[in-house]
Structures are given as C-alpha cells and as structure tokens.
Amino acid sequence: MQEITRIKLWSIGGGKGGIGKSIFTLGLGISLSRLGKKVILIDADLGGANLHTLMGVHYPPVTLEDFLLKRVERLEDLIIPTEVEGIGLICGADDVLGAANPTFAQKIRLLKQMEGLDAHFVLLDLGAGTSFNFLDFFNYSPGKIVLTTNQATSLQNAYGFIKSALYRQLSREFSRDNDMLEMLFMMAGKPEYETPRSIRELLAYLKDAFPGEYARVVRVMAYMRVWLVVNMIKTHRDGNCARIIQEVCRDFLSLQLEVLGRVPYDSAVEAAVNNTNPFFLSQKKNKAMAAFQEIAERVLKESRLPRTAWVTEEELMEEKEPQEPAATAEYSSYYFW
Ligand SMILES: Nc1ncnc2c1ncn2[C@@H]1O[C@H](COP(=O)(O)OP(=O)(O)O)[C@@H](O)[C@H]1O
Ligand SMILES: [Mg+2]
After folding, report:
1. Which of 5, 93, 159, 232 would bridge 63 by S-S if both were Cys, CB 3.0 to 4.6 A apart?
2. Whose C-alpha lies nearest to ligand 1, atom 10?
3. What is the mean pLDDT of residues 8-18?
4. Which residue has the higher pLDDT, 166 or 318?
5. pLDDT category of residue 321 using cuts at 50, 70 and 90
6. Do strands 80-81 and 143-148 pair parallel, antiparallel, or not at all (unpaired)?
7. Nearest in space to 123 (alpha carbons), one of 146, 141, 136
C-alpha cells in the first residue's frame, strides 16, 4: 500500500449499548471506502457481536474465536469479503476473550496484528461496558472515538468510559508503583479527604514533590486524544449535549475533547438494520449517511497528521477561567460526575 496512513487503527467505544456504535462503525467504513480507502471492520464486541448481521452476513464462516482458540493461524485469514466494495470484515465471537482472560501483553500482540492488516483503515467496534479488554483496545488505538446520544444515561456512560480509559492508562503507566496505584484507585472511585479530586489537582500535588511521576502523568495526558460523536440527534439542541461531556472531561480529567461530528436520527438507518442490507444505508442519500461522509473526511484529514503530543504541560497546568456552565435546566440534575 503506497500511501502512509499515520492513524490507521480507530476504536469506537461509548460504554452504553444500543447507541449506534455498530451503525457508526459501518457508516464510517462505507464512507471511507467511498473515498477510495481500503477498510477492515473488526467486531470486537465479544459479548454481543452483530456487525456481520448489519452487513448482511448471516452465518460468519470464521470469527475472532477461531483465531483466539488457534484454529486459524493468521488474523488476515479471518477477513471475509463483504458486498460493500473495499470493506473486509472480521466477525466477533461470544466472550471468548473474556473467558480466555489474556494478559496485557497478549492483547497488545493482538492489537499490533490488527493494526498491521493490509488496509488503510482498521475500525474496531467495541462492545458496551468498561471491561479492561475494551479499555485496552481503546487505549492502544491512536484513533479514539466515543459515541453518545443526548440521553442522560448515554452521556453518563460516555463520561464513565472516558474516565475509566484514562485511569486504566495511568494505572498501566504506574503498574509497578503501589503508592501511585493506590492514589489513582482512590481518585477513580470516591475521592476522600485529601485525595486529589481531578487530574489537575493530581498534577499540582506531584509537581514539586514527585517530578518523575509528574512528568509521566503529563506524558500520558499529552497523548490521550479523544473524539466525540453525538448520534441520533433529533433537534438542534440535542447536539449541544456534547458540551456537557466536554466540560466535565476538561474539569475533572483535563482532557480537551473535540467533536468529530453529529449524526442525525434517520429512519433510513432503522430500515437498513431491519433489512440487514448495508446497501440500503449506503445507496440512499440519507441524512445519517451525509453525516458519516463528513466525519470520514475529517478522519482522513486527522489520520494524516503526525502523532505528536496533543496538549502541553503548560496547558495542563493552566488555571481555567470558570465558565458559564453548559448545563441547561434539563441537564442540571446531573450529579453523577
Ligand atoms: N443515526 C441513527 N438514526 C436512527 N436510528 C439509529 C441511528 N443510529 C443507530 N440507530 C438505531 O439504534 C440501533 C442500535 O444501534 P447499534 O449500532 O446496534 O448500537 P450499539 O452497537 O451501540 O449497541 C440500531 O438498530 C438502529 O435502529
Ligand atoms: Mg454493537
């Protein structure tokens, strides 16, 4: 493959089920393929794999399970061609990864193989929840997309997913440092008296007393770049819910999330699902597809940028001006952050 894609592996997570992660993965894949890119979709939802159904494949001939149980030697032998030109699919299996309980190193090996597949883009459709397997897949992927809808529970789970991913990444970084691990554990749970209550407080605490640890936290933070997609938007106001997640992520996690795109609610999507016909999704000039196409162009642009630190130490330590809270009346009852 001639062209170099710098960010090739993208994970689509979000914590909650039924919010459109699989639809989004498929829509983004179709759109990238329309831009002339070779795409492989991997159904990493190892408990509720159904990406193949959305693509009209009723009985997957091989799945990730065959690879994980060593019935198939090479990951590329799992790729099944689909009716959508330019898109290959690796089907998911039941929770064999959970049952196999792979070590962190084994997971990284699997991810490296996924990233090494012969394609311009590899998209990982993650399942619901915040199991370590999903968080490790997400953290390893340089392209990190979190999906949400404007529903309170979806916003809550999206934030929970991002928070869990960040704390998982920090815990990996300090896996041999019991003091740091204990502090991170307390921070991620219910912060008690004297425990830092945010990443900024943690950095302030570490800065002078523990410069080595401080530098490592800064480095982890600098490369944690998360994009947000709001799905099933019905009114213009629905799209504003992204601001809520952006604000809590900024205040508590020191993460500056960017909105990658907003996808309207579109009855054609439901019809495509019920017809298990991806062409229905791709051929109709529908609203959702137009949004996926726009997002694909953005993904293409972002994927070409070199991977450099995303935020600087100064930005992380910056005192943030208190801003007018985004929470409108309907969101003001949110107390779950
Ligand atoms: N943009 C959209 N417009 C209308 N319906 C949607 C949209 N995105 C998802 N859906 C509906 O939501 C259902 C769940 O989507 P799915 O991708 O399977 O969720 P997840 O993978 O997050 O569990 C789909 O079957 C579809 O009917
Ligand atoms: Mg799904």
Report:
1. 93
2. 20
3. 92
4. 166
5. low
6. unpaired
7. 141
